[in-house]
Description:
Helix content: 40-55%
Radius of gyration: 18 Å
Oligomer: single chain
Shape: globular
CATH superfamily: 2-enoyl-CoA Hydratase, Chain A, domain 1
Number of strands: 9
Number of domains: 1
CATH class: Alpha Beta
CATH topology: 2-enoyl-CoA Hydratase, Chain A, domain 1
Amino acid sequence: MEELILYSVADGVGRITLNRPEKRNALSLALRRQIVDALQEAERDDAVTIVLIDGAGSSFCSGYDLADPRTDKPAGWLESEHFDSWTDQFARSVFRDWMTIWDLLKPVVAKVHGYCLAGGTELMSMCDIAFVADDAVIGYPPMRNMSSPDTPYFPWKLPMAQAKYLMLTGNSVTGQEAARMGWVAKSFPPDELEEQVQRELRPLAQIDPALLAANKGVLNQAYELMGLRTHLRSAWQWHQLSSRYRPRAGEFGEIARRDGLRAAIERRDEAFRREGFRP
């Protein structure tokens, strides 16, 4: 299998680096599977106290790979005449993958630079802690004309005013703005990001892993009692309705097939660009 991630362990940190720099680390099914495998390997390894996820190249992650042929389906993907026409197996598989992070006994930290868009923000937002570059571009523009999110984390990560603003507009913000909103833990100057993240991780990695697991479990239980798991698990229904059954749901795909993906994206973002908003 192609090596789509780089994995290493040092000083109590298991580092998972998305390694498709030529695609801005777009999330193919194969890349997602290798991320999950690495997370589970890190959880089993007693030399790992914390897991760090970052990206090779110019960006953390540009989102789900729209060109992925999806020929190599992950475990749990149902291909059946009973379910194909009305269930959203892609969105259901996304929920299963990112809940691996939520359920992991060890804290998972995201280090974000460059672009972090759409599915990339789902990966980042399901991590326990996110540190980002001040100039990172973080947002979910596909909500403008494609579908609702596969993992609608917005109401769990942001105040209502910001959650509604970002979900309804699909606008992006800088890493510095995301930190001010409380979407991420902290932002740092781009040239200091690695140094500052390591400064955060060094003492964190000295805490007893069992105590970290207990503290993470206490926090997660509170959000689950408020309904997080139920909400995210049912998101595939809205994703299916909005991406397949909504009137004009196929417009983006039609333009992409006829004129190319770049043209479809330009058409999607044109009105926002005219007003000076990010992608």
